[in-house]
Specification:
Strand content: 15-25%
Strand order of the largest sheet: 4-3-5-6
Order of helices and strands: EHHEHEHEHEHEHH
Distance between the termini: 21 Å
Radius of gyration: 15 Å
Shape: globular
Number of strands: 6
Number of domains: 1
Length: 173
């Protein structure tokens, strides 16, 4: 399996990633997916209606993401953004800053909180923040990994320390 570990279809529309994955599959004969398609599978599988959103993105991107989710029937109850312009800088933000963004968004009581950016360090703290807030934390890298594991016939629940998303993917119908 080939996974495009990127989130741009979250603001450009899922058709972008569906087309990319179809092209990859046609060229290689290997099944393909993406982070945005993995999120879509998860959101549909759990019937998600409300979401908190944490990113390093600019407002112009974040607002498009919120609009895309609204078109899918998902209400973003609160969001936090860093207004960062430089992609490689996304990885320079510390886990404490990301954790505080999650805590701030958690006050709106969404069903889940997405750390939407594959270059933003949310996975290692997801389990602790779930325990603290009582809200499922969906890190982009974890969502992609859990989705790929399931698609390959592996049990995502084998991963136990990076948040409950692995168990959730294991339990999807």
């Amino acid at each position: 399996m080939i996974a495009w570990n990127g989130t741009s279809a979250s603001w450009l529309g899922l058709e972008k990633d569906r087309a990319l994955c179809a092209m990859i599959e046609a060229e290689t004969g290997i099944k393909a997916t993406s982070t945005s398609l993995a999120y879509d599978r998860l959101f549909q599988g759990i019937g998600l209606k409300t979401l908190g959103l944490v990113t390093p993105y600019l407002s112009e991107v974040q607002d498009l993401i919120i609009a895309q989710y609204a078109s899918l029937g998902i209400t973003v109850t609160a969001d936090a953004r860093l207004e960062e312009k430089v992609n490689h800088a996304f990885a320079t933000y510390g886990v404490d800053q990301i954790a505080q963004m999650i805590r701030d968004v958690a006050n709106s009581k969404p069903e889940a909180i997405s750390i939407l950016c594959t270059n933003f360090r949310g996975a290692p703290q997801a389990a602790a923040l779930e325990a603290e807030t009582g809200i499922q934390i969906l890190d982009s890298v974890s969502v992609t990994a859990a989705h790929c594991m399931r698609e390959l016939g592996l049990d995502p629940a084998r991963v136990t320390e990076w948040g409950s998303v692995f168990q959730t993917f294991s339990d999807l119908p």
